């Protein structure tokens, strides 16, 4: 191959570059990890074909940039690769039997963990199992059942190991569950999770790397080339570094180092000291994006202005005192890092904007995009306008709404659920908004997210159709706008000479797919950095 040859040439497909105003191209050349050239003529780059060039004829296919999932949890997916697959259960007996089968193959006293991507309303009993029921599966192992990132259920063995009794103080911003008779039921929420999870030994390094290999390949298979993982511990990041070095990652990773569970700036300062060695931004595959905070709970504890529909004495949970969060966020930005903060309910959104406004006032000249709102689930018109005025980007997660709408209606009622993730309102205000899944609460997938944003379809029907956006807008949120959020706007998001060769190949044009087909449509190939990561 000559110095001017290409490693890969794609021709005769409709190549949608996402470059504003550019018509679909018909040929694309890649050299190394970069796009080398494009042409509107299917044979316009044939002069770059040499003896070592791979040529892919894509007649009838559509090419798009690879998608970003801007709020997800690859680490959870990787851990779940080896956990008990309770997401396959249809009822609690089947749920318990899966744990029971794992217990038979697990030495007594060793921890048993489950996958996290399940919902209790998918079980026939439409509730979570209890500690007593988990004891029926095994009382000779500590059992940790996770559901998403905010809820655990553990058996009595695990409660005893953690020293949790009916007299244990409830951590601020947490819940220790009890049944109707006041007895511990094994449920732990938000800041109470650490009471047990601190005791669970991490899988060995080789097992964790293999989990990342499997999980990142699963993301890539749906068209996702970059994940923004929003809860990465320092230990997790060390594993990500090892996985990168082993060539185990099929997606790029932008990591938010987790301050979840922290309640003061001093703890955050200690975390920032650990992060100092990770300031290198030259690695296009793996880098630290910033720090992740959580201001309120999730589906069952999001902080709302009005009481819950199911409990008129409850309006969710704020995990941080606002003044303390101002100090903590300020500690992060003064060290030159970005901040992403979970704010789900409208009271949390309002409080977060108050916090961010104070930080911006006290730290003039912060780079655009330093402070990000994660979710902004119930942000109303006034809050959205305020966020835009302050220059606060927001990430939204339509798959989360799709999968949990029935659960959320039980807590908040149908009117509030229909207002979640108002993409149309954000875009019309000119907000910097980007999209993701929030796996394991929502199911990841490039077109699964696009389908949800264009239809507002959920497991219980269409919710809030006035918040739907167009196909082109939805793709932009996952490509151009997502790359901007990650600080990669000069590298990714569009297909142009000099940009990273991150692209997806579809056997049909997703823009023309019927709605019911689009949701489950996957690409035939995903290419990241010029490397075919799916076959």
From TrEMBL:
Q: Which UniProt keywords apply?
A: Hydrolase
Record's superkingdom? Bacteria
Q: Does the keyword Hydrolase apply?
A: yes
User: Which top-level enzyme class is recorded in the Swiss-Prot or TrEMBL entry?
Assistant: hydrolase
- Residue ranges annotated for the Amidohydrolase domain, each copy included: 56-533
Instruction: Work out whether the entry's keyword set contains Hydrolase.
Output: yes
Q: Which CDD domains match?
A: YtcJ_like
Q: What are the EC numbers?
A: 3.5.-.-
An example molecular function term from Gene Ontology annotations? hydrolase activity, acting on carbon-nitrogen (but not peptide) bonds
- Show the PANTHER family listed in the entry: IMIDAZOLONEPROPIONASE, PROTEIN LONG AFTER FAR-RED 3
Query: Could you tell me what this protein is called?
Result: Amidohydrolase
Q: Which organism is it from?
A: Streptomyces sp. R08
């Amino acid at each position: 191959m000559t110095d001017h040859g290409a490693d890969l040439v794609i021709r005769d497909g409709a190549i949608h570059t996402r470059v504003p105003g550019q018509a679909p191209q018909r040929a694309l050349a890649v050299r190394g990890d970069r796009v080398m050239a494009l042409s509107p003529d299917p044979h316009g780059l044939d002069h770059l074909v040499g003896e070592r060039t791979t040529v892919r004829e894509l007649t009838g296919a559509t090419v798009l940039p690879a998608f970003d999932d801007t709020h997800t949890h690859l680490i959870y997916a990787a851990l779940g690769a080896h956990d008990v697959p309770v997401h396959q259960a249809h009822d609690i007996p089947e749920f318990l039997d899966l744990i029971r089968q794992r217990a038979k193959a697990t030495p007594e006293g060793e921890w048993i963990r489950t996958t996290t991507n399940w919902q209790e309303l998918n079980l026939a009993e439409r509730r979570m199992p209890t500690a007593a029921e988990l004891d029926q599966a095994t009382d000779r192992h500590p059992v940790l059942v996770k559901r998403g990132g905010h809820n655990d259920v553990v058996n009595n063995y695990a409660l005893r190991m953690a020293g949790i009794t009916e007299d244990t103080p409830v951590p601020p911003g947490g819940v220790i569950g009890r049944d109707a008779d006041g007895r511990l039921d094994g449920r732990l929420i938000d800041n109470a999770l650490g009471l047990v999870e601190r005791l669970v030994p991490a899988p060995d390094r080789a097992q964790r790397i293999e989990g990342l290999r499997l999980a990142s390949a699963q993301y890539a298979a749906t068209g996702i080339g970059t994940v923004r993982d929003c809860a990465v511990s320092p230990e997790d990041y060390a594993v990500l570094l090892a996985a990168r070095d082993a060539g185990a990652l099929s997606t790029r990773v932008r990591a938010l180092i987790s301050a979840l569970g922290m309640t003061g700036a001093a703890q955050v300062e200690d975390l920032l000291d650990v992060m100092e060695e990770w300031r290198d931004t030259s690695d296009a595959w793996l880098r630290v994006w910033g720090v992740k905070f959580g201001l309120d709970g999730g589906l069952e504890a999001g902080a709302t202005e009005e009481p819950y529909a199911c409990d008129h004495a409850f309006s969710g949970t704020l995990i941080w005192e606002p003044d303390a969060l101002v100090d903590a966020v300020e500690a992060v930005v003064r060290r030159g890092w970005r901040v992403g903060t979970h704010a789900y309910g409208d009271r949390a959104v309002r409080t977060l904007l108050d916090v961010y406004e104070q930080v911006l006032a006290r730290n003039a000249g912060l780079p655009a995009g330093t402070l990000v709102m994660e979710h902004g689930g119930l942000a109303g018109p006034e809050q959205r306008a305020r966020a835009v005025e302050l220059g606060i980007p927001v990430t939204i997660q339509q798959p989360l709404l799709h999968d949990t709408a029935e659960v959320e209606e039980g807590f908040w009622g149908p009117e509030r659920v229909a207002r979640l993730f108002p993409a149309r309102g954000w875009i019309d205000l000119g907000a910097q908004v980007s999209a993701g899944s929030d796996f394991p609460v929502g199911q990841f997938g490039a077109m699964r997210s696009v389908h949800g944003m264009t239809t507002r379809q959920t497991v219980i029907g269409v919710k809030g159709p006035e918040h739907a956006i167009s196909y082109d807008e939805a793709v932009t949120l996952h490509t151009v706008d997502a790359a901007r959020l990650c600080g990669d706007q000069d590298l990714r998001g569009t297909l142009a000479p000099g940009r990273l060769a991150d692209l997806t190949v579809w056997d049909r044009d997703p823009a023309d797919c019927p709605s019911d087909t689009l949701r489950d449509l996957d690409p035939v190939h995903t290419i990241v950095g010029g490397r075919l990561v799916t076959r």
